[in-house]
Amino acid sequence: MQGAAQNNSASILENKQRVLADKIVVFVGDKYVLYSDIQNYLADFKRQAQAANIEDITIPDPCQVLENLMIKKIFVLQAQRDSLPLSEDEVDAALENRIRSYIYQYGSKEVLEEVANRSIFQIKEDFREPIREQKLSELMQNKIIEVIKVTPVEVSDYYNKINKDSLLVYESEVELNQLVVHPNADPDVESYVIKQLNDYKRQVETGVKNFDYFVKQYSEDPGSRENFGQYTLNRGDKNWDPNFFSAAFRLKTPGQVTPVIRSKFGFHIIQLVKKGGDEVVVKHVLRTPPITEAETKIIKNKLDSIRKEIIQKKMSFNEAVNKYSDDENSKFTAGAILDRNTGASFITIDALDKDLVLAIKGLNPGDVTVPLEFTDERGRKGLRLVYFKSRTTPHKENLKDDYNKVAQRVLDLKKQVAIENWIKNHIQDFYVLIVEPYKSCPQLAKWFQSQN
What we know:
The protein is α+β, with helices and mostly antiparallel strands. It has helices at 2-20, 35-51, 62-81, 88-106, 109-116, 120-145, 152-160, 187-205, 211-218, 242-250, 293-311, 317-324, 328-332, 354-360, 399-426, 445-449, and strands at 24-28, 31-34, 169-170, 173-181, 230-234, 261-263, 266-276, 279-287, 346-348, 372-375, 381-391, 395-396, 432-434. Helix 4 packs across helix 6 (120-145). 22% of the residues are buried.
């Protein structure tokens, strides 16, 4: 098998050496790593550290980066050998998300194209194969670790081996729940917005203006506006608004536009871009009718009454959330406000938005705030009651209070060991050719040994 792989790689090298010989630093099977791949990895690492305001960070050396890229290549190759399923629609969806994030980062599509000196189409084509490989690598790693579990005995053994002077110290954290209500706009205002959207639809269908024009000029969806309102929907995804979701899948032919539909975010018209299998690519225009002080006051009075019932013990906060909250995510978590990075219900004060920090200042566990106005991540105005459920005191890590955190560390370590063992046991299954000066990298010695 290795002989065949050697001949295959030699053939690849002969075919590419005229163009890429000065740039290729390693072959792994029929995949290769370029010098520019290493430099781009390091540049991205530094940019991410700067964006996160991380100082005193250790920059990996080129040898470490090269090994990481080589490991990714063997995951990709093994995923292909195992025929792990990855559709072009999944690649397209990941590609759209990547481009959308770049547009958001740079502020507009035009600025991104100027910085990259390439059109959006060219940028997408540049990223298509790297994203495909990233997805295949992730599929393979998930296959390796999907059976990894931890037991209470393993967690206890791990914890008991930690030097007591080395135990983590946790700062104070709070546990908060919220009851969210979004005011409804005045019916006359809603009718005016619907009339405008119907006019957009008419102009698109008669060829007066194209759909992209109305997205750029009027859409109020910050997540897709700079990407011309485009989203990729999969039938298995349950996170979409049901009205939006069903309307998108009812479209039959590219260019077709839906009637005006209502979702929890406002009113939309949706245009079909393409449709295939279980996925559909659409563009949309979102208009959110403005909320006046009158509608806000109605909801504030309603929340004042709910708060009074909670304080008088006529209903619990959880019961109030189930009965009155219109935030679907909150209903599944009893209104818990979760840490955006970890998903944990306990959050440090500095992870809360400043308005919420001020609102809970001076409160004790069991207290409920007065109605608070806020704007969610999609720009919708709402009001909420916040329940101060509990507060932890600063403490050293212990299994009673911190079992889940310790268990997650044990699980992560077991997954890391499983990945490392898999790599160690499978390096010999792949032909590797490394060129100077990277042959001298000490961490790559095992790759040479696997070929002997």
